[in-house]
Write a structure and sequence with these properties.
The chain contains 4 helices and 13 strands. The chain has 250 residues and is an alpha+beta fold. It has one domain (7-248): Creatinase/methionine aminopeptidase superfamily (Creatine Amidinohydrolase, Alpha-Beta Complex), CATH 3.90.230.10.
Length: 250
C-alpha cells in the first residue's frame, strides 16, 4: 500500500532532507586515504544528531550503524568498520536521517584521494547523469516505468550494468515503503504505477562496470558485492512529487 504524503508531511521531510544533506556535505570532505569507514560513520551520525535528527539506518532490525559504506566491488549494505581507505578506491557513502516521524535517504559515490582514472571518472559521471535524468522523469502524470527506463538507457547505453535485484523505493514513516522503483524496465511503462502528487520516493541508480549479478560477501551478514568483482556505484536522492513540481528533498 502506498502512503501518499500531505503538504505538511512533505514539509517535515524537507527539513529531514536538509539535515541529511548538510551532514553528508560535512562528511564527504573527510573521505581521504588513511581514514576508516568507521570514522566516516561516526561523523555522519554526529552531524545528523547535532541538527536534531536521528539515524534512520539504526532503526533497521539488527543494523547498528548510521551509514552503509561499500568500497570498490561492494555494492550496498556494507557496514562500516576498521577498513582503511586507499588512494584510488571508490566509496559509496549511503545514509538516512529520521526527524519528526519521517525518513530521508541519500547516497553518493566518490573517488578516494588524488589518484585518477579516466575510465572510473566516466563511470561515476554516467551514474550522476542517470540520477539527474531519472529525477527529471519523476513528475505527476508520468509512470514509475519512465524513471526506470531513463536509468536503464543511460547505464546500459554507456556499457555498464544495472544491479537489477536492487531498487529504489517509497519512503516516509518507514525507510522502505511501496512502491519499488527499479532501474530497468520489464514491462511497458504505462503498465507501471502512475505517479500522482504526494508520492515520495528514493530514486537509486545502483550499477556496476561488469555485471547485473550480485553476491553476498563472505563472512559478513549484510554486505552485497558484484558477482564478478567489478566496481560498483550508487547515487540516490529522496524526491517528493507535488501538484506544482518535483522537489529533491536531499
Amino acid at each position: 500500500m502506498i502512503h501518499y504524503k500531505t503538504e505538511h508531511e512533505i514539509e517535515i521531510m524537507k527539513e529531514c532532507g536538509v539535515m541529511l544533506r548538510t551532514a553528508m556535505e560535512r562528511v564527504i570532505p573527510l573521505i581521504a586515504p588513511g581514514i576508516t569507514t568507521e570514522k566516516l560513520d561516526k561523523e555522519t551520525e554526529r552531524h545528523i544528531v547535532s541538527q536534531g535528527g536521528e539515524s534512520s539506518f539504526k532503526k533497521v532490525k539488527n543494523y547498528s550503524w548510521t551509514t552503509c559504506v561499500p568500497v570498490n566491488e561492494q555494492v550496498v549494505h556494507t557496514p562500516p568498520g576498521k577498513r582503511v581507505l586507499k588512494d584510488g578506491d571508490i566509496i559509496t557513502l549511503d545514509a538516512g536521517a529520521y526527524f519528526k516521524g519521517f525518513h530521508t535517504d541519500y547516497a553518493t559515490t566518490r573517488i578516494v584521494g588524488t589518484k585518477r582514472n579516466k575510465e572510473i571518472e566516466k563511470f561515476l559521471e554516467v551514474g550522476k547523469r542517470a540520477l539527474d535524468k531519472a529525477i527529471g522523469a519523476a513528475k505527476a502524470g508520468a509512470y514509475i516505468g519512465n524513471i526506470s527506463e531513463v536509468i536503464e538507457n543511460e547505464i546500459y547505453g554507456n556499457g555498464y550494468h544495472v544491479m537489477e535485484q536492487l531498487t529504489g523505493h517509497g519512503i516516509g514513516k518507514e525507510l522502505h515503503e511501496d512502491p519499488f522503483v527499479p532501474g530497468f524496465l520489464d514491462k511497458p511503462a504505462e503498465k507501471t504505477l502512475k505517479i500522482r502528487p504526494g508520492l515520495v520516493i528514493a530514486i537509486e541508480v545502483i550499477y556496476s562496470m561488469g555485471t547485473e549479478e550480485i553476491a553476498y560477501e563472505k563472512d559478513t551478514e549484510w554486505s552485497i558485492v558484484t558477482s564478478d568483482g567489478s566496481l560498483s556505484a550508487c547515487f540516490e536522492h529522496t524526491v517528493a512529487i507535488t501538484d506544482k513540481n518535483t522537489c529533491i528533498l536531499t
